[in-house]
Amino acid sequence: MKKKFVNTLLSASVIAAMMAGTFGGFVSQAAEEEASSDEPVTITYWGWDSNFYEPLMEAYSESHPNVTFEPTATEWGNMLTKAQQALASGSELPTIIPMDMTLIENWKEMDIMEDLTTYGLDVSKYNEIYMDAATTDDGKVIGLFENICPAGIAYKRDLAKEYLGTDDPAELQEMFSSYEAYVEKGKEVSEASNGEVFLFHSGQAVAEWLYFASEVPNVTDGTINMTEKMTDIMGKLVELRDAGAVDTYQNGTPEANATYAGENHIFYPCPDWALTYYIESNDPEGSGNWGLIKAPVGYTHGGTAMGITSASGDAEKQVAYDFITWCISDPEGAAVMRDKVGYISIDNEYTADSEFFKRSDEDFFGGQDISTLYYQDIIGQASIVTPSIYDNDIVNTRNDVAQQVMNDPEMTTEDAVAAAVEELTQLVGSEDVTIK
């Protein structure tokens, strides 16, 4: 099952009250008193993205000089294992842990995170779907997600104009309103460029997009729907591959990232956070040459929740809670996250305020109103993949098989599905779940 978003437009008086700070960070009185204390407090943090946490910690410390942050750089893929090893060895956990959506169910099973509602968190103020994703079966809210991650398809205007006849986002949106259109246009572009220009740079990137856009649930009644899920994803990828629409780069490698500034790839699947972390960072001279359209199916991609470990001291927990809600609900913190990190809060008041969610990088996209496109048009149609404890294994399998599809032009959809089922079965290695 995928859960759909519903946009909620709030009254001007509610937005004004929140922006004036009367809503605050929804912190309880006790938490506010503790957080505003002049007593020195050190907050430890494990994180894989210094571009996210460093600007926020620096800004928070300016207004809270008694708070010191001690972040430890930790690879995304090592975060869960690092926590498990700390528990096994009796070593310290950090005060704050970021929990990726792909692993949120695994974090719930570890039972090491505080229930944020006990610190005054008002769940009704935040995006319902993301709050549900961070809530355990017994009602504990173990984290607060940072942003809502709407995703579209970014494109290079010069290549679109040369090979598709237009760089106008409205015209391209109409042209690419279905998956079939990508296949058809992929063939045309390949033929027109003698196989030198592709719609997409990476089969893994395409499979990632198709995974998050898929309506097939990962798990139903204890059964992993691998055949149906991978048929949906790999079937479309094979069609695009055979049309000459997809290049063979491995997603996220330096070689793949260099293509953003190149002249051979038109489209890139693009959640809002990728604007900063992929497009603008990898093509700094490309300002004005990028545009954005919706995918055929509205989707979101990503999301990370910040939570507080139960091993922390009371003073640290209170300050950690204040910091987390400051990042997401305080006007100052949410503005830092928007302007320096490129994230828009899951706080309903912000996503309802078109002035607040206006991104500062629209000039990079030729002056296009990508803010409304992301935070109203796309998110109004989008949904998220309902998380499960098997998501990380499913994602790793998806990436491996997608690259196999691109490396072997003879690999069929049936071959890819069989390879995915076999690999996932080995990864899961449990008789408690059925894989079909």
Automatic annotation (TrEMBL):
Pfam families: SBP_bac_1
Keywords per UniProt: Signal
Keyword Disulfide bond found: no
Signal peptide: 1-30
SUPFAM superfamilies: Periplasmic binding protein-like II
Domain of life: Bacteria
Protein name from the UniProt record: Extracellular solute-binding protein
Organism: Candidatus Limivivens merdigallinarum
